[in-house]
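Next comes the chain:
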Amino acid sequence: MSIRNVEIQTIGLHVGTPDHSKVLDFQRRYTKSGIFSCAGVSIFGNLDEIGGVATVTIGTADPTSTQQNMKLSLNVRGNSVLQGDSQTPNALHVSGGGSVNTVYIDGDLYVSGAIDSLNKGRLASRFGVADSLPPKSFDIKHPTKGSGWRLRHVSLEGPESAVFYRGRLTGSNTIELPYYWKDLVHEDSITVQLQPIGDRHFHLNVVSFDNEKIVIKEADDKSIDCFFHVFGERKDVNPLLTEYEGNDRYDYPDPNFNENSDISVEDRNYTDPNYSFPRNTITT
C-alpha cells in the first residue's frame, strides 16, 4: 500500500508499539505542539548504500528534495545529550569534513577525562601545563634500569631565549657553528667556554667569533684538544621580557606569546615590532 501527500493534523502520531513517548510523567499529557514516536528503525534522507544501520539513520536529501542545502544532513538547534553504552568503541565517531578542522567548536571546550591527540594538532593546554609547573620537566621510563624506574629532567632556565652548541675540538683551531646559526643567533650575543683536555696545562684564547665560526689561538705550538660550549641569543623571536607587571602569565605584554590570545596561531608574529623588548645579552 502506498499513501502519498498525507497531511495529519493530530496531537500524536506513533509508529510501532509500545509508545515510548509516554514513559515519563511529564510526557503523559499531550500538548498542541504534537508528539511523534517510532518504536523501531527510522530512516531519513537518501541512504541507498547504508540503509537502516542504526535505530535512527540520517543521510543527505534525495535529489528530488527542494531543501536549500542538499548536503546538510542534520541541523540541531538547542542542547544535545549523548550517552555511550559500550556497544561500540566510541560513543561519538566523527570523520571527514571539508577542511583540516573536521570538528569545529565555536566556544570553550571542557573535558573531564583524558585527551589523546596522538601528538597531532595544537593544544593550548600544553603551554598552560608547561608554564604552571615550578620547574619545566619531562619524565620518561628509565633508559637503563628499565621497568619500575623513571628518569626525570628539568629544562634549563635563563633570562633569554638562548641556544647552545657544544662538542670537542681537535686538529683544528676553528669551531664551525651549525650553518643555521647565522639566521638564528645574534652575532653580538655569543659567549664561548673552552676546557683543555689532557695533563698539559696551556691557555686557549678566542681571537675572533661570529655566528658562523669561532677562531682559537693557542699560547704555544701545541695542538688544540678541548671541549667547548657556545651560547647565543635567538634573533628569530623578540627578546624575552624577563620582568613585567601582572598577576599571572596571561599578563605578559606580547599577546603573540599568550595561549589565550585572540590572535590565531597562524597569524601570530613572534617578531612583532610593537613588542620588541631590549636585548638580554650583548657581548660586543
Residues 124-132 form the longest helix (9 residues).
